[in-house]
Amino acid sequence: NNSYQLSSVPLQILFYVNGIYYIFYFLATLAMIVYKSQVFSYPDDFLAPDLTLLFIMAILEVLRLYLGSKGNLTEEEAPLGLSLVITVGSVILSVYFLVWQTYVLKADVIINAVLLFTYGLESVLQVIAIAAFVS
């Protein structure tokens, strides 16, 4: 019964693209935080949390993409499910940078909207893949 491939090719491609995009996202967000700290009066007690959350998000992203890829390629629902759970955390952090960070620039809105879109698409494909593995 396991002779045909259940792992999702579109999901794997999306993980790959998301990985590359996240590197851009991380560097862009970091650069903007640095820029904002120079241009705006950025209270120090706000700068640290914004930077900390960005680094936490980066760690989550690496874990999320690793577990997602591994779960998808090995056709195991557990790592894929865990990746999906981590996605929830990533979404919350992305929304933080979209809405609640100290200064939100138009560029922040754009790059977070794209990230949230990829999270949404990935989540749908992950649920479909998990359903295929479980059945």
Automatic annotation (TrEMBL):
One of its GO terms (biological process) is non-motile cilium assembly. It holds the Pfam family Transmemb_17. This is TMM80 protein. GO terms for cellular component: ciliary transition zone; membrane. InterPro entries: Uncharacterised_TM-17 (IPR019184). It is a multi-pass membrane protein. The chain crosses the membrane at residues 13-35, 47-67, 79-99, 111-134. The keyword Membrane applies. It is found in: Cell projection, Cilium; Membrane. The keyword Membrane applies. Keywords: Cell projection, Membrane, Transmembrane, Transmembrane helix.
